[in-house]
Amino acid sequence: MKMAPETTPRIIVCMVVTLLASGTVTWAQQADNASLLYYQAFLLYEKPDDTMAQMITDFRKGTIGVNETIIKHIENNRRVIDYLVAATDMPTCDWGYDYRQGADLVMPNLPAVRRIAFLLSAEARLLAVQGDYVTALDRCLTLRKMALQTCDRTLVTYLVGIALNGLTHGNIQNILGLIPNDVTALKQFRDALVQTQKRFPSLAYCLEQEADVCAQTMRIEKADVILKMVQESDGSSTDPALERVQQADEAFFERNRNHWFSSTALVIDTLESSLPYSEMCAKLGELDKRLCAEAQDNPDATLTAISLPAVGRVYQLTIRQQTHLHAVETAIDLYIAKASTGRLPDALPPDSPRDLFSGEPFEYERTDGGFILRCRAKEYPEKDKPHEYEFIVKR
Q1: How many whole angstroms separate alpha carbon 272 and alpha carbon 391?
Q2: 301-322 pLDDT, tens per residue?
């Protein structure tokens, strides 16, 4: 499964026409499908050149201030933003993917989703700078809802959803320092943020869906797709997998599908075992090595070894995103305390969200300009130091 390297207007038009003509969506139903608003937004978006894109990135991260060029770019894309806000308020988002393609599934909308997310992120900061912090926070929720609607039945879309969540949390982190002492607005935003997170699918659920999609490729009529995957992953004409697939019959594919589903079930059971972070990483690493090594002597494990994703790495990214969210939630509580009492508390409340790398509360350090929340364990051993999140408090 893959994103197209570049989403062109022609490709997007074709996807919309295909979506409507396929019967997935009829003209009468189009008002209920958010993807059609997204596709229109993609077509209308004025893609920035490299200089403009870098300026937008620097602005949304807070490393430069606002200027007329940034304001003009955002206003030129006002209709795009309006479509995005409307789309995320809709209950259904069917992108029209053809899952029969299996592992060869192409999703040309994903690069465009990421680009317009950067636009929305920049507008959120602009609103906060201009003093409209309520709408700025609402735009952050729009980004979270975009992540939900982007995350579909494949691991690629899950990873894009994770990236959008990370963008959202960074945006919130930067915007909170611009917000005045408004206890009501902060509490309402925190509650809404938590609710959207509850709707985001788990990695285990995503892998279960991914297994069904990948299994579409594990058929004799898709042998050419699998051979291409083998050659891309290894490049060796003497690879045992290459020879097995070239000589395979339908029984070979059926045995491999069974092995694939049983192996995926093992991974899902591990993910649902609620092991501490370090133990989970070790367990997933061991399982990955064992399942891949099994293919050396067991032909029935051939396609599992080819198709098994790097679950351990995806798990790390998931925990990183969730820990950043917990830091943001903790920070909002501290901002609420500051708004209520006039000063930051000396310590975190005992029921504060946890650093998921250690399973313990964040380390809390007040600074001259605000505070830092620091993880008590590193994401992986070779990393120089744990993640930390700095927040500025408006004076």
Answers
A1: 33
A2: 999 999 999 999 999 999 999 9
C-alpha span between 151 and 164 (Å, rounded): 10
CA–CA dist 118, 193 (Å, integer): 19
Residue 201 buriedness (CB in 10 A; 0-12 / 13-18 / 19+): middle
pLDDT at res. 26: 45
Residue 64 and residue 72: Cα distance in Å, rounded?
A: 16
Cα dihedral sign, 319-322-328-331: negative
Q: DSSP per residue over 176-228, as a string?
A: HTT--S-HHHHHHHHHHHHHHHHHSPPHHHHHHHHHHHHHTTSSGGGHHHHHH
CB atoms within 10 A of CB 358: 18
- Judged by DSSP in three states, 301 sits in helix
pLDDT at 27: 41
Q: What is the full DSSP assignment across 92-106? A: B------GGGGGG-B
Answer positive or negative: Cα dihedral of 376, 381, 385, 387.
negative
Specify the 3-state DSSP secondary structure of 87: helix
Query: Which tokens in the block code for residue 135?
Result: 């709408």
Cβ-contact 229, 303 below 8 angstroms: no
Best CA proximity match to 140, nearest among 329, 335, 388, 357: 329
Residue-level pLDDT at 7: 45
Mean pLDDT (whole number) for 220-243 = 79
What is the rounded average pLDDT of the residues 213-232? 90
**Does residue 143 carry a pLDDT above 90?**
yes
CA–CA distance, 242 with 247 (Å, rounded to integer): 9
**Closest alpha carbon to 318 in 197, 210, 222, 231:** 197
**With left for phi above 0 and alpha for psi between -120 and 50, is residue 354 left, alpha or beta?**
beta
Dist CA 159 CA 289 (whole Å): 22
Alpha carbons 224 and 232: distance in angstroms, whole number: 12
Interval 103-130: pLDDT, tens? 888 898 999 999 999 999 999 999 999 9
